[in-house]
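Morning run. Coffee first, then this:
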Amino acid sequence: MGAPDRIGSISGGADGGVTGQRCVSHVEEQTQMAIWSISASPMIMGKTSPICAAGQPFSLAYAKGSLGNDMRNVTAESMAILKNKAAIAVSQDPLGQMGIRLTGDIPEQIWARELANGCAARRPQRCSHFASDHAVRSDVAVGLYNKGTLPPDASAQEVSDAPGADITISFSMVNLHGSVTVYDIWEQKSAGAFTGSYTVRAPATLAS
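And here it is:
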């Protein structure tokens, strides 16, 4: 796809993810849920992925859509991801605007999705992605994704030992200026107020 890239929609998603199926790491499960939510995909719980059932490595290329797993076997750690209220709120945001990849297809990626808070209440017919003429800025969901360069068949230990990457989003990329409050969805708390940009150390995931 060309830049900016778009995935998913409010009425349909891409393929299924495997959060809860115990065939990817905890960080990769969070990554799947984040991409799924920013994609505006519907929340559908389906059957166990045949890839996981066969014990094969799972690529995050298949993480952009509905989630497939057997709820009887989901661990508490995975269930916390699936039931994360903030991630679900991003997925089900009433603006229904699908996510955009703000970077190219590179290892350290930035994804973002404008949310209904502000935009839909002002001019829903003109809620274009991060338009510079917005009179009142909206909340924005941002995903900082370390796609990594590990081979798809890397072991769990290799993934765990791989170095993370510092990923920085410049707030001007999403038309945010001045002091910006950042809320960490996975930590479920505010990360503080920042000006100009925000940087996180993103753990490695398998290349997709």
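Residues 5-202 form a domain with the Immunoglobulin-like fold (CATH 2.60.40.1180). Good start to the day.
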